[in-house]
Known about the structure:
It is built from 15 helices and 11 strands. The protein has helices at about 15-35, 65-75, 90-100, 110-120, 135, 175-190, 195-210, 220-225, 240-245, 280-290, 295-300, 310-315, 330-345, 350-360, 365-370; strands at about 50-60, 80-90, 105-110, 140-150, 170, 235, 255-260, 265-270, 270-275, 305, 325-330. Strand 1 (about 50-60), helix 2 and strand 2 (about 80-90) form a beta-alpha-beta unit. The longest helix is centred in the first third of the chain and has 21 residues, at about 15-35. The chain is globular and about 60 Å long. Belongs to the prokaryotic sulfate-binding protein family. InterPro entries: Thiosulph/SO4-bd. Keywords: Periplasm, Signal, Transport.
Amino acid sequence: MFPSVVVRASTRSRGVGLLALVLGVVTTLCVSACGAGSTDVPGGIDISSGSHHLDLVAYATPKPGFDAVIPAFRSTPAGRDIGFSQSYGASGDQSRKVARRVPADIVNFSVEPDVTRLVKAGVVDDDWKKQFPNNSTPFGSVVALVVRKGNPKNIRDWGDLLRPGVEVVTPNPGSSGSAKWNLLAPFAAESGGGRNMDAGLDYIRRLVSGHIRVNPKSGREATTTFEQGQGDVLISYENEAIMLARKNDSAPPSQRIDYVIPPQTFKIENPVAIVSTSTEKASARQFVDFLFSDEGQRVWARQGFRPVTPSVIAATAAEFPGRIDKLWTISDLGRVLGASAAQRTGAPATTGWKAVDTELFGTSGAISAIYDAGGRS
């Protein structure tokens, strides 16, 4: 909506007044565009006021969660005098911005390497994973397959994505942490957790070359692309699938969806960290502590994100239907890939995201090479 502007000017100064009006509107539109994806009023509730102020820089997917969590925190004694500004976007892009010293007090990224980048840039402490429970990961999800209502292509498992004529939407792993999780799920399933590297990479190669037609920058852009009618299957976070399913009653028929949790899928872990250069560390800690509180965990669960506190996990289990026979983790995959790389190169074995990113997504990673080649061998 354009801003309402009242102009009072004499005939002699009308030209100057009109010029000022045009410049004012252009400036307003520029500010709005530059801040796209960022808001200080989730749900129409003012969250910016307070004698303390936090800048939250996050990847795109958890915005609906923070839109509920931040007002809940501000209703507590600890949070009532803390205001917020928010910025959302593709995880890798957001991380690189903070590394360039874009103002931030708290970061929440899709994957651990996007926090590691900030450690190397001197923006986040080395021990960030030890500062909060669960390796500083307050919520998560699993990789799901979002399909058109009624599942007309009968998509049930990863192999179904490679059938002739099935078009898949998933973001680009070069910019999106969501894309990495999305690709790790079938890679782990097809490779036996990294034990058969060739089988896992052959699946990714066939998926990229024959079935992925668009590569949005972020998980949220991928969801929007699917909502606009592109693709038969959206590989996504379960919380995105839940959000879309909740909109079915009000959505036009073309945008109604079902979703499938494959029998083998991947556990998504999205870390938070406090920026070491923040001048509001005490307020930032209070907010992150709230994310791990029972109240905060219940809010995350209501927004479709899987909680990490055992008692809340048990209490909200019905919110996350679907049977998972094997839930692969970064720990599982990193241990296998790191040991394999050490055996191949003679270098010390790495684990976790360090091993996974190096072997699959780094500048010389195998999946990066597949994308660079467009899926061609």
